[in-house]
Amino acid sequence: MPTSEATRAEARRLRDLFAARGAVVVKADVLQSAETLLDLYGEDIRARAYLTSDPLRGEMVLRPDFTVPVVQMHMEAHAEPARYTYSGKVFRKQEVDETRANEYVQVGYEVFDGQNPAAADAEVFAAIAEGLNGLPVRAATGDIGVLMDAVRGLKTTHARKAALLRHIWRPGRFRALLKRFGSDQVPPARAALLAAEDPFADAGPEIGLRTRAEVAARIDALRADAAAAPISSEEIAMIDAILGLRETAGHVLSHLRDIAVDMPSIGRAVVRLDARLAALGKQGVDVETLAFEGSYGRTSLEYYDGFVFGFYATDRPDLPPVATGGRYDALTAQLGQGRVVPAVGGVIRPDLALGLMRC
Q1: Cis? peptide before 205, omega within 30° of 0
Q2: Which one, 2, 143, 214, 322, has the greatest CB density within 10 A?
Q3: 3-class DSSP state for residue 89?
Q4: Is 319 exposed, middle or buried (0-12, 13-18, 19+ CB in 10 A)?
Q5: Which of 73, 104, 109, 111 has its CA nearest to residue 88?
């Protein structure tokens, strides 16, 4: 799909705006190795990205976003602190809404700086807001880190916490797991399997890719899970309270402080939120009216693990977000072979911004 000259001009304007903040202009190949994305997100990525096979390079993917290749560039460069900006097309499958574009231009601003994460969060948010200055948009914010810390603090097994953390970005699956882990009832079919003295008796020939040892290990894990005490209703209620938060950021901070009394594992996340709001205020953001949602960001590509935000057209709820962003420290650890570099970034869709200018 050809990109209009107006969109290209707006993309250049935004990229130059970010470059004026000290960001280095970088480019990323349109074709990326699918192996990296599959390692990060599993087979789910196939439903969202265009994959193809190259006889020499193996499975490749049309760039679904810029964050992963930019992180790879940075981790190889070892330059810190660093700021980057870029513009170019990304490609996303649209299986539900055919009116949404499956290829469009993104312009981004990424900050790799661990000296003051709260200030970096505020810097990126303010940069994206500056790019949208004058447009009829509203901001939404959240913090995936609060929910992650709440899950890590649950009084349950490591395996159950790992499963919940893995599915934070799949709200339906997360809810189903939380419900199951909060019950002491085992499904009848699973109970019969787990109660069998020899689950392999009369099992017939071995077929499929899993070995008997792998199947036995899985059965042992299921038995351990069945023997675990259920997550208490009080802890589940606190998780629900966090997910149900939907107020101005200041009020949310007050609520989270109250929850932290009974769930101290979120204490550090509450301190981070407090510092971030102070940093946003220094950037000129009106934090008294800034919206915060406890569940915000849980349907994005699952690399955000802290602050998340988006900007939406106030009079066009049918449109996708005009801009999105967030913190992704864990992604740098995965792509940096254990070396963590605190990082936060955001992207703007210039085509949507232009549409709002004409309204």
Answers
A1: no
A2: 143
A3: strand
A4: middle
A5: 104
What's the Cα-to-Cα distance from 259 to each of 143, 146, 256, 265, rounded to whole Å?
15, 11, 5, 10
Write down the pLDDT at residue 189: 58
193, pLDDT greater than 70: no
Cα-to-chain-centroid distance, residue 129: 20
User: Which residue in the block uniquely carries the two structure tokens 């880190």?
Assistant: 145
Whether the CA torsion 352, 357, 358, 359 is positive or negative: it is: positive
| Amino acid letter for position 151 | V
What are 191's two structure tokens?
């109970």
Question: Whose CA is closest to 125, among 137, 113, 109?
Answer: 109
The 3-class secondary structure across 241-268, one letter per residue, is: HHHCCEEEHHHHHHHHHHHHHHCHHHHH
Tokens 């940075």 correspond to: 74
Q: How many residues does the chain have?
A: 359
Encode pLDDT of 79-138 as tens digits: 779 999 999 998 988 766 667 788 999 999 999 998 999 999 999 999 999 999 999 999
CA triple 114-324-138, angle to 5 deg: 115
| Mean pLDDT, residues 49-74 | 87
d(CA 145, CA 150): 8
Fill in the DSSP letter of residue 328: -
Each residue of 217-274: pLDDT tens digit? 877 777 777 778 899 999 999 999 999 999 999 999 999 999 999 999 999 999 999 9
Contacts of 326 (CB under 8 A, 6+ apart): 144, 297, 300, 304, 306, 307, 308, 309, 344, 345, 346
Cis peptide before 350 (omega within 30 of 0): no
Alpha-carbon distance of 193 to 220, in angstroms, equals 11
Helix, strand, coil share of the chain (percent; to 5): 45, 20, 35
8 A C-beta contact, residue 201 and residue 209? no
Prediction pTM value: 0.88
Share of the chain above pLDDT 70, in %: 90
Contacts of residue 132, Cβ cutoff 8 Å, sequence gap at least 6? 311, 322, 323, 348, 353
